[in-house]
């Protein structure tokens, strides 16, 4: 990623504005053990207490790296019950990176966040319908399958 993704202007801007990047060698102890780093690159989204919320392993192009990081940030907010913040990041993925591999999970999580925030199951059904229309073979469509009945 050093030669393709990290030098990309959009990636640099995103990293500088939205995360606190920390680069650690894969064999640096105790972090490699603490975070079960088995392969590089491994990107881990942590909260301020060091709790993991999202992980990717392997190369990501700039077009996939930014939405993956946004998804990780959204999951962090989701786990902290900050649903409006999570929804904001998920919307950004779906608007700016609709063809990314993060988009199906973003639709799914958007439906779950909407439900958790409003207690209205409509968002869950809408998530399934969007997944079925855009990504019928996605694992996230399969996971949302029960929501079709709502």
Automatic annotation (TrEMBL):
InterPro entries: Thioredoxin-like_sf, TPR-like_helical_dom_sf. SUPFAM superfamilies: Thioredoxin-like (SSF52833), TPR-like (SSF48452). It comes from the Bacteria. This is Tetratricopeptide repeat protein.
């Amino acid at each position: 990623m050093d030669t393709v993704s990290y030098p990309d202007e959009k990636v640099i801007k995103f990293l500088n504005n939205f995360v606190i990047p920390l680069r650690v060698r894969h064999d640096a102890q105790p972090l490699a053990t603490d975070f079960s780093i088995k392969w590089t690159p491994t990107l881990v989204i942590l909260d301020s207490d060091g709790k993991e919320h999202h992980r990717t392993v392997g190369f990501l192009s700039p077009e996939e790296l930014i939405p993956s990081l946004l998804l990780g940030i959204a999951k962090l907010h989701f786990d902290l019950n900050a649903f409006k913040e999570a929804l904001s990041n998920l919307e950004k993925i779906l608007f700016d990176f609709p063809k990314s591999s993060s988009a199906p999970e973003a639709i799914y999580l958007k439906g779950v966040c909407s439900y958790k925030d409003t207690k209205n199951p409509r968002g869950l059904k809408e998530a399934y319908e969007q997944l079925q229309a855009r990504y019928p073979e996605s694992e996230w469509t399969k996971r949302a399958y029960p929501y079709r009945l709502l």
